[in-house]
Amino acid sequence: MIVSNATDKTVKKLLINGQSHDVVIRSADLLLDTLRSQLGLTGAKPGCGNGDCGACAVVVDGKPMHSCLSLTIEAVGKSITTIEGLQDSPIQKAFIENWAIQCGYCTPGFIMNCYALSETYPDADDETIEEWMQSNLCRCTGYQEIKEAVKTILQIKKDQRPAQ
Ligand code: FES
Ligand code: FES
User: Fold this and answer.
1) How many structural domains does the chain have?
2) Which of these, 20, 80, 104, 105, is most buried using a 10 Å CB contact count?
3) Whole domain around residue 23: which residue ranges?
4) Are 106 and 67 in contact (CB under 8 A)?
5) Cβ of residue 77 lying under 6 Å from some atom of ligand 2
6) Facing residues of 15 across strands?
7) Cβ within 8 Å of residue 118, ≥6 positions away
8) Is the pLDDT of residue 3 over 60?
9) Are 114 and 67 contained in the same domain?
C-alpha cells in the first residue's frame, strides 16, 4: 500500500455496481484499498500487488483493470463493476458448474475478466479466450476448467441473442 500525504484528502463519489458512494480519497490511494477498506467490498483480492496475478481485477467502464495498480482518483466519474455486482450471475454459476474453483482466491479476478470479455467479444474464439485469461493466475484449479466456464458463458450469451 502506498501511503500518501494525509493533508491531500478529498471526498468524491464513486459509482460502483450502479450505486453512488462517497469516499475519502488521497491522491495516491489505490482503488483496491478504497474498495476493501472504505467500502467493505472485499471480493477483489490483494495478491502480487504488481499487476501479475489478476486477483484484484475489477471492470471500469467495461475494461478489466488491476485495482492494485489503479488510482482511486482516476475512477471518479467512471462506472466500476466488482464481483459483488455479479452476485448470483450466470458467470458465477458457470464457474461452479465447470468445477473452475478450488480455494477460490483467484476466482473473483477470473470472473471479472470473463465478464469483460463476454461483453467486449461475445464471439471470442479459443485464442482470444486464452489471451484474455493470461492476465490471471490460478495456483490450484486447472486452467482447462476455467476456460470451459468462460466458453459456457459465451455460449449462454449467444443463445440469448434474438434470432436474425
Ligand atoms: S494483486 Fe493486482 S495483479 Fe496481482
Ligand atoms: S482456485 Fe485457488 S488460486 Fe485459483
Assistant:
1) 2
2) 80
3) 6-85
4) no
5) no
6) 20, 79
7) 91, 124, 150, 153, 154, 157
8) no
9) no
Report yes or no on 51 lying in a domain.
yes
pLDDT at 162: 81
Other Cβ atoms less than 10 A from the Cβ of 69: the count is: 13
Alpha-carbon gap, residue 54 to 47, rounded angstroms? 8
- Residue 139 Cβ inside 6 Å of ligand 2? The answer reads yes
Q: Are residues 14 and 67 in the same domain?
A: yes
| Nearest ligand, CA 35 | 1
Query: Is 102 touching ligand 2 by the criterion CB < 6 Å?
Result: yes
Digit-coded pLDDT (tens) for 110-127 = 999 999 999 999 999 999
pLDDT, one tens digit per residue, over 16-39 is 999 999 999 999 999 999 999 999
* Stated pTM of the model: 0.92
